[in-house]
Amino acid sequence: MSTNRTDLIVGDILKRIHEAIVEHDVTYPEFQAAKQWLIDVGEAGEWPLFLDVFVEFAVEQNANRAREGSQGTILGPYHLPGAPVLEAPYELPRREDEVGDPLLITGEVVDTHGQPIAGAELDVWQADAAGFYSGFEPSLPEGILRGKVITGEDGRYEVRTVLPGPYTIPLGGPCGALCASAGWSPWRPAHVHLIVSAEGYEPLITQIFFDSTEYLDNDVAGAVKDDLVVKPERQDDGSFTFDYEFKLEPAKVPANA
Questions:
Q1: How many alpha carbons lie under 13 Å from residue 113 in its C-beta half-sphere?
Q2: Among 67, 115, 127, residue whose Cα is nearest residue 245
Q3: CB within 10 Å: which end of the chain, N or C, has fewer?
Q4: Residue 152 belongs to domain with CATH number
């Protein structure tokens, strides 16, 4: 970031903080409490959590306001690189006794003209039915409910998994304390994360939410969009399925190219 850009953005943020202090008549005890909370966030290692939950949605909405393809949303803190590419029957790794209703996700990856994109990659990850992510919850085996699928020549994909559960951000740290103090919901609705990418196209970072889950209207991360909410259909065997089309826009040409 250039010096002029830093001065513009940081200077404006500080100016707005100063204005809020005057507007709300912030006292010294309140300032000291805020200062200690900021220190606590750093000591607890929750700055990534704070930024992902309370700030990223605004950056994402602004950065992608002119997106031509499907709706995106925040990446969040739980993505891990290096997930395996799955082979048929394209099932996210899971425990033998994995809890949760079986879920089949199918669909197509297309360009902005509706033409199928062969060889597109969908990096998929999610919480388990209890709301925990592998790699972040010590009780879970490494790598479960994470994997990649590749579209066929017809642009179609499928992946088998289980319905994830909603979950809260960590409640024992300063971010959880902030929610409690402000009376904000700490919950995230049930969702599946995806990064959809293909050569020559802008990658799509998104999440798919379920209409039956709680907290759609008060997602702590502000990441829910109407176009990302689906209604899975229950099958005769008790499993669920839904079909979703991802539309990728062409890769942007750098301004100095």
A1: 4
A2: 115
A3: C
A4: 2.60.130.10
Q: Which residue has the tokens 């809020």?
A: 20
Asked, for residue 39, whether it belongs to a domain, the answer is no
Q: Model confidence over 68-96: pLDDT tens digits?
A: 999 999 999 999 999 999 999 999 999 99
DSSP code string of 34-56: HHHHHHHHHHTT-HHHHHHHHTH
Return d(Cα 231, Cα 186) in angstroms, integer.
24
Number of domains observed in the structure of the chain: 1
From the list 163, 150, 155, the residue with the least C-alpha distance to 88 is 150
Q: Tell me which residue of 253, 247, 251, 252 sits closest to 112, measured CA to CA.
A: 247
Within a domain: 62: yes
CA of residue 88 relative to chain centroid, distance: 26
35 occurs within a structural domain? no
Beta bridge partners of 205: 195
Render 54-87 in DSSP notation, one character per residue: HTHHHHHHHHTTT--SS------S---S-PPBP-
What is the rounded distance in angstroms from the CA atom of residue 78 to the CA atom of residue 136? 8
On whether the CB atoms of residues 94 and 162 are closer than 8 A, the answer is yes
Residue 176: inside a domain:
yes
pLDDT in tens, 150-194: 999 999 999 999 999 999 999 999 999 999 999 999 999 999 999
* Strand order from edge to edge, sheet including 240-248: 156-162, 102-111, 240-248, 233-234
Q: Which domain holds residue 101?
A: 44-248
